[in-house]
Amino acid sequence: MLSPLCLLSNPIRGVLYLALLSLPCSSTALESATNIADSVHTLAPIRYVNTSTLSIAYYDSAPSDSAAPVAILVHGFPYSIDTYVDVVPKLSAKGYRLIVPYLRGYGTTSFLSPSTPRSAEQAALGKDIVDLMDALSIDKAIFAGYDWGSVAVNVAAALWPDRCTGMVAANSYLIQNRQTAWATAPSASLATRWYFYVFLTPQGYSALASDTRGWAETLWSRNSPQWNWTQAQLDAAVPAFRNPDYVDIATNFYKNRLLYAPGDPSYAKLAGELDLLPVIRVPSVTLDPDQAPVFPATNGSSTAQHFSGPRVHHIVHGCGENIPLQSPQVFAEAVMEVAALGKRHN
Ligand SMILES: *[C@@H]1O[C@H](CO)[C@@H](O)[C@H](O)[C@H]1NC(C)=O
Ligand SMILES: *[C@@H]1O[C@H](CO)[C@@H](O)[C@H](O)[C@H]1NC(C)=O
Ligand SMILES: *[C@@H]1O[C@H](CO)[C@@H](O)[C@H](O)[C@H]1NC(C)=O
């Protein structure tokens, strides 16, 4: 199924590393049967651990297996940890320990203090991953994500490479330099990001607060137009939006990215480092779904400058933004691929 289309040279190491491969957004007969039955299992049980700022709710597939290689799987907006419900068994079967946390503002992850700013800035999302690892005494892990999860794993991999054995990220590199936050873009591109701008307004805030399910339904449909997601999958995600900080966090992500909300001062130093667009030097597999209008698929060359280690880029055909739920096999294979990439280059 893998058809190598081209090889590009890595600008920093001068080695042929970036392979562009095409993947179908396939689903097995078993997955289709699950969809027809419209039944969805969920990740359980949920565990809790405290960092300095959060009580993080997370699923852990093998809490007592301290020898297993760990992969941390990070969800996006407006989704939940159950995005990974079909990825987890595939990787568990290969001996991985999977940790799937609810982001700040989602599910039963909660802030320990009412006075902590409800910031969803990129530095906070990335640091939460490393704080979670510290709290669980996990030294190193593979980081994998899509959408907000890509932002989180990009940041964590770039700023804490010693904690990361490999990164899987949809849309390659989404770390933002605030200086370019207001760069002009084609109208067709801005039109796909309409909700970023709605969330800057009080109307957007109250609209999301009054109908979190309806917003998820709209964004799942618009951001993955060819994905026949089921009502059962949406039902499984909806409890994640009942967090008391959900609307603050969801809108803050876009407000902060568009410079309409300042960051939390406690992340100022990290935020400054991220403005320099730090290079990701850990082994990386990047995935561009070709049915995700907000971030059109690329061949990976435009983001090559942000990677200095081994990197493989795939276009995932027929897939929308939620790759792990729509195409769990592709996502699971990307995690195994980045692990192999790390071993080959050590
Ligand atoms: C987390 O911190 C809260 C508040 O300090 C405390 O009540 C709770 O027991 C802690 N939870 C864990 C799992 O340590
Ligand atoms: C999704 O549903 C539409 C309409 O029923 C159908 O035409 C299409 O083939 C389906 N797509 C997939 C990938 O199953
Ligand atoms: C990748 O895409 C860029 C921009 O669209 C194009 O200029 C470049 O030739 C492409 N590279 C390959 C190897 O296809």
From TrEMBL:
One of its GO terms (molecular function) is hydrolase activity. InterPro entries: AB_hydrolase_1 (IPR000073), AB_hydrolase_fold (IPR029058), Epox_hydrolase-like (IPR000639). Residues 72-317 form the AB hydrolase-1 domain. Belongs to the AB hydrolase superfamily. Epoxide hydrolase family. This is AB hydrolase-1 domain-containing protein. Keywords: Hydrolase, Signal. The lineage of its organism: Eukaryota, Fungi, Dikarya, Ascomycota, Pezizomycotina. Residues 1-29 form the signal peptide. SUPFAM superfamilies: alpha/beta-Hydrolases. Gene3D superfamilies: alpha/beta hydrolase. Transmembrane segments: none annotated. Pfam families: Abhydrolase_1 (PF00561).
